[in-house]
Design a protein that fits this description.
By secondary structure, the chain is of the alpha+beta class. It contains five helices and seven strands; from the N terminus they run H-H-H-E-H-E-H-E-E-E-E-E. It has a five-stranded mixed sheet.
Length: 154
């Protein structure tokens, strides 16, 4: 998915040793920018969980992440949000979709550029049950600078 040269360059930004982990990290970085640079998705979703903690506050990251945990801010249909997510994340490929009364999950599967190829996945899980916050929602500036992808969001 990401040419090897960009994976090698991104290694300067993360502590991961394996190229496939570096590649997946860069895909997660871009996915976050794609999601939260869209005004409608930004109004509907909040980023939370271990990946949020490590991406926003802990540098260098101390834990490798394979997923993005989100929560639906306001109660309502999640269908339009899922459609927008799939559009914004088309660069990863086609997502499989799972739903329950508490969660909506998109799962992307793709082959790494490393040889031999490693089958990777990115799980995006949306909690559609908890529509509250204890300490209010906060916006954080977030950016990615790579020759493969350069973007920012708040």
């Amino acid at each position: 998915m990401i040419p090897k040269i960009y994976i090698t360059q991104w290694k300067r930004n993360v502590p991961w040793k394996s190229d496939y982990q570096v590649e997946q990290d860069l895909i997660i970085e871009r996915a976050l920018i794609e999601i939260f640079s869209n005004s409608e998705l930004k109004e509907q979703l909040a980023f939370r969980g271990g990946t949020a903690l490590h991406k926003l506050f802990l540098k260098p990251q101390v834990r490798y992440s394979e997923d993005i945990d989100l929560v639906q801010i306001k109660s309502g249909s999640i269908g339009n949000v899922l459609t927008l997510l799939r559009e914004k994340l088309e660069f990863i490929g086609k997502a499989n979709y799972n739903a329950s009364k508490h969660n909506a999950t998109l799962i992307y599967r793709f082959e790494s550029e490393t040889k031999p190829g490693v089958r990777l996945r990115l799980k995006i899980e949306i909690n559609i049950r908890e529509h509250y916050t204890v300490f209010n929602y906060k916006n954080y500036k977030y950016s990615v600078k790579s020759e493969w992808f350069d973007g920012s969001c708040v």
